[in-house]
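Weekly modeling sync, notes
Attendees: S.R. (lead), two postdocs, one rotation student

Agenda item 3: backlog of single-chain predictions. S.R. asked that every request posted to the team notebook include the full sequence so nobody has to chase files. The rotation student volunteered to paste the first one in as an example of the format we agreed on. Action items at the bottom.

Example entry:
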Amino acid sequence: MTATDTLAIDFEKAGGLVAGIVQDANTGQVLMLGFLNELSYAKTLETGFVTFWSRTRNKLWMKGETSGNRLKIVSASTDCDNDALLFRVVVEGDGLVCHEGTVSCFTKPIADAAK
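Predicted structure, as returned to the notebook:
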C-alpha cells in the first residue's frame, strides 16, 4: 500500500473514522477492533505497525507502545464499501493483545446469541 491509497478509504461515512479489524495472520483469530482516522492510517502505512486513533484520549495510539505487543502488518485490505479495514498481523511480544491479558479482546460470550 502507498500513501495515495488513503484517498480510497471512506473516512467521512462515519464521521472521520473507519473500523480496523485485527486478525492473527497465522491462526486467523480475530484479535481486536480499533478505529483509524486519516492520520493514524497514514502512520500505519508509514511504520508497518497498526496505529489507531484513540477516541477517549483524542490522540494517536500504536497498539503495544507500552506493552510491547505491537501489531506488525502482514497484509491489509478494505471492505467492499471502503469504510472498514482488515489488518492481518504478527503480534510482537508475548502475544497478549488485549489489555485484560488475553490473546484476543473477544472473550466474553453473549448468552443466547446463537439460536
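Discussion: group reviewed the output briefly. The longest strand covers residues 71-78.
Action items: rotation student to repeat for the remaining queue; S.R. to check formatting next week.
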